[in-house]
């Protein structure tokens, strides 16, 4: 048995007197797409931030491909080089061209020669239908285009794990589909993804497993058909009744 790509064991995160995560256990296998659902404040975004070490946990253990990355002695930059992250706000560098945004981590973090990094960037931009915008700056792109560039940047280094945090919430409704279609393509290509989203229909279509969080704990998890169509827990049924009505 190979180690899970991600293994969360009893994750606790406290801000002041408020426990945002209260003992979260979650294991993600290679090539699996796990979608986190839950109300705002349920702990989805905080959980993703702990995985990328943007927030340090107060208790528990985070294993990335069997390595304990929650150890305080860990090299944070080396860990983050193994993980791709996309947030709801695109966070592209406004002073860099689209191509340079995509290729930057390859050159600066992974020491890939510029010509090779640029070619990888151009290949990815072609894959997302934006090869003709390589020399443009981000402010020349629509929100959906910027988010697709952010995803291309995150996968440029072939990360072991891809974290997507509400990547469509800042987009106009007509742009949501093009971003979610790209995530579907990443799933088909075998990416390992943990994604927080309010897009229940997308979770049903793409997730291998849906995880419902409430008040910082995993209330229910399982295949989309079970969790979304036949939830076993009252809290899950109540949440879905609100968001699907």
TrEMBL record:
<dbReference type="InterPro" id="IPR030679">
    <property type="entry name" value="ABC_ATPase_HisP-typ"/>
</dbReference>
<protein>
    <submittedName>
        <fullName>Glutamine transport ATP-binding protein GlnQ</fullName>
    </submittedName>
</protein>
<dbReference type="GO" id="GO:0015424">
    <property type="term" value="F:ABC-type amino acid transporter activity"/>
</dbReference>
<dbReference type="InterPro" id="IPR017871">
    <property type="entry name" value="ABC_transporter-like_CS"/>
</dbReference>
<dbReference type="Pfam" id="PF00005">
    <property type="entry name" value="ABC_tran"/>
</dbReference>
<dbReference type="InterPro" id="IPR027417">
    <property type="entry name" value="P-loop_NTPase"/>
</dbReference>
<dbReference type="InterPro" id="IPR003593">
    <property type="entry name" value="AAA+_ATPase"/>
</dbReference>
<dbReference type="InterPro" id="IPR050086">
    <property type="entry name" value="MetN_ABC_transporter-like"/>
</dbReference>
<feature type="domain" description="ABC transporter">
    <location>
        <begin position="6"/>
        <end position="240"/>
    </location>
</feature>
<keyword id="KW-0067">ATP-binding</keyword>
<dbReference type="GO" id="GO:0005524">
    <property type="term" value="F:ATP binding"/>
</dbReference>
<keyword id="KW-0029">Amino-acid transport</keyword>
<keyword id="KW-0547">Nucleotide-binding</keyword>
<keyword id="KW-1003">Cell membrane</keyword>
<dbReference type="GO" id="GO:0005886">
    <property type="term" value="C:plasma membrane"/>
</dbReference>
<comment type="similarity">
    <text>Belongs to the ABC transporter superfamily.</text>
</comment>
<dbReference type="GO" id="GO:0016887">
    <property type="term" value="F:ATP hydrolysis activity"/>
</dbReference>
<keyword id="KW-0813">Transport</keyword>
<keyword id="KW-0472">Membrane</keyword>
<dbReference type="InterPro" id="IPR003439">
    <property type="entry name" value="ABC_transporter-like_ATP-bd"/>
</dbReference>
